[in-house]
Amino acid sequence: MADIVFRNVTKRYGNTIAVDDASFTVNDNEFFCFFGPPLSGKSTILRLVLGLESPDAGEILIGGRPVNAVSPAERNVAMVFQNLALFPHMSALDNVRFPLVERGVAELQIKKRVADVAAKLHIGHILHKPPAQLSGGERQRVAIARALVRDPNAYLMDDPISALDARLREETRVELKRIQRELGKTLIYVTHDQEEAMSIADRIAILDNGKIRQIGAPAEIYDRPASTYVARLLGSPVMNILKSARGVGGIEAAEGTIRIADKAAPVDAVEIGLRPEDIKVRPWADGGQGRPARVFEVEPLGGYTVVTLAAGQARLKALLRGQPDIRPDAMVAISCEPARVHYFGQSGGALAR
Ligand code: ADP
What end-to-end distance do the CA atoms of the chain give, in Å? Predict the structure, then answer.
């Protein structure tokens, strides 16, 4: 068992609170992701798990054992640093063996671990080659094998694929997810890329200035963000957030930009959030089912199209399927199903409808 638990952990550097009263449980075998802007405390949390830093307050447990006073070596948690690059002068095999050789592991044990990892990563047939003779994808798999060849209680990864180009990043994250599932290991992963966090994690913790703002499965956080802060972090384009007030028959947002006929809308809502994919856009000529808006910009992206709309006092982004016949300056009618609307109160917290 290698669940990792933080109980009210705080870490300060001088006047900076890097981690602020953080409590969470990473379950055994879970792919757990920390996501937040730069300097929000992600790396500090990893260093606290590793034992490279000790908390000023609170308790850390690994596999049920309190580890505040336990050395990094004894915690048996493996850190995979940012760079997954290979040593160019060594064969793939020697690259994979390296972390075990370095630790003085017995040869028999090394052979067994390497064979095991090579089988899981499907790289047995290329291990004799030097990195220069491998394709980009093969090099990544070898690098992941080297990162995973030790058999620790848990792996920690700090933005491990951010240096790769976009296509390789997409391939590698799929691979990482599959490997983690097969290895059945606890993995704590840090990224600053929201799409990566959404696609790869079983659960995500959202950080803001050292505070954990929300923890949940990607779909749960996306569908039910706990605050405007979280709502704005996930999704592309980001959620439209508009000032709102109660009007006749429901909610009026941004002085009439859009009307939501929702009798169940919470009375203390001061803002509403509309995901771009939830905004319905129809030609105005169809009888004006909704509020009028002018098309400001159209971005056709192949499978979908982002339309920026100027409506009332606001700019909105809508995400439409395919490549609809919409031109800049056209008049359209916009609306949104009440059930798809997010409501937020005075302090930015989500409100139940
Ligand atoms: P992230 O990984 O999300 O970018 P960090 O955990 O690196 O965030 O940093 C969190 C906060 O702690 C930041 O304000 C950063 O400046 C501060 N910090 C991190 N490490 C140190 C350190 N060794 N000394 C002083 N301040 C630090």
Answer: 40
| Pairing status of strand 250-253 against strand 203-208 | unpaired
- Give the CATH number for residue 260: 2.40.50.140
Quote the domain boundaries for residue 179: 4-224
* Separation between Cα atoms, residue 156 and residue 75, nearest integer Å: 12
Whether 65 and 209 map to the same domain: the answer is yes
Residues 325 and 183 grouped into a single domain: no
Instruction: For residues 207 and 247, state if they share a domain.
Output: no
> What is the number of the ligand 1 atom nearest to the C-alpha of 36?
3
Contact call for residues 53 and 66 (beta carbons, < 8 A): no
Tell whether ligand 1 has an atom less than 6 A from the beta carbon of residue 41: yes
Amino acid in the structure at residue 147: A
CA of 16 to the centre of ligand 1 (A): 8
CA of 77 to the centre of ligand 1 (A): 21
Nearest to 4 by CA among 67, 47, 79, 52: 67
Query: Which neighbouring-strand residues pair with 205?
Result: 34, 215
How many A from CA of 58 to the centre of ligand 1? 18
CATH of the domain at 115: 3.40.50.300
Same domain, 186 and 315: no
Among 206, 224, 242, the domain-final residue is: 224
Same domain, 94 and 206: yes
Per-residue confidence in pLDDT tens, the chain, 353 aa: 689 999 999 999 999 999 999 999 999 999 999 999 999 999 999 999 999 999 999 999 999 999 999 998 889 898 876 556 788 999 999 999 998 999 899 999 999 999 998 988 889 999 999 999 998 778 878 888 888 888 888 999 988 777 777 887 888 888 888 888 888 889 999 998 899 999 999 999 999 999 999 999 999 999 999 999 999 999 999 999 999 888 776 777 766 778 888 888 888 899 999 999 999 999 888 766 788 899 999 999 999 999 999 987 789 999 999 999 999 999 999 999 999 999 999 999 999 87
Report whether residue 44 contacts ligand 1, using a CB cutoff of 6 Å: yes
By most ligand atoms within 8 Å of CB, the mutation choice from 6, 16, 191 for ligand 1 is 16
State the distance from the centre of ligand 1 to the C-alpha of 207, rounded, in angstroms. Answer: 13
